[in-house]
Design goal:
Elements (H helix, E strand, L loop, with lengths): L3 H47 L6 H57 L11 H6 L5
Helix pairs in contact: 1-2
């Protein structure tokens, strides 16, 4: 039987791994797409500027360099978005897990102490309803 800690640790690891996989796929897709579009645009503008379908070899080098720069920019952008989204999701997930754990501890403490609706053998209704005792 798995303990609560093992279950939380495994599901947290699965969450992070799934996020890394999806961000990696998005990075590859964005890099390829932006690189291809950038190269096509540079080649197209060069053809329009030259007025023919034949362009100098230097244009192909510039198109490749511009495509690499655009692909790198897209990859970094998607990576940063993935990191920020993962941090936000992880914080929300941890908050939910802590809330579940807290509710479980409170329920267990109420069960052990025999507390029901703020009344029990060890708790007076005044203390629970009015907060901490005043001096």
């Amino acid at each position: 039987m798995r303990t609560r800690y093992e279950s939380v640790r495994k599901s947290g690891g699965q969450h992070i791994l799934a996020t890394i996989k999806s961000t990696g796929r998005a990075m590859i897709f964005a890099g390829l797409l932006s690189g291809i579009i950038a190269a096509i645009l540079v080649e197209g503008f060069a053809m329009i500027a030259a007025g023919s379908f034949t362009v100098p070899l230097q244009t192909h080098v510039y198109a490749a360099a511009f495509a690499l720069v655009c692909a790198y920019a897209a990859i970094v952008t998607v990576l940063l978005r993935g990191v920020i989204a993962t941090l936000v999701d992880s914080i929300e997930w941890v908050t939910d897990e802590v809330q579940k754990l807290t509710e479980g501890v409170i329920h267990q403490a109420e069960t052990v102490l025999g507390v029901q609706d703020g009344h029990g053998p060890y708790v007076s209704g005044d203390v629970v309803s009015s907060g901490p005792p005043t001096r």
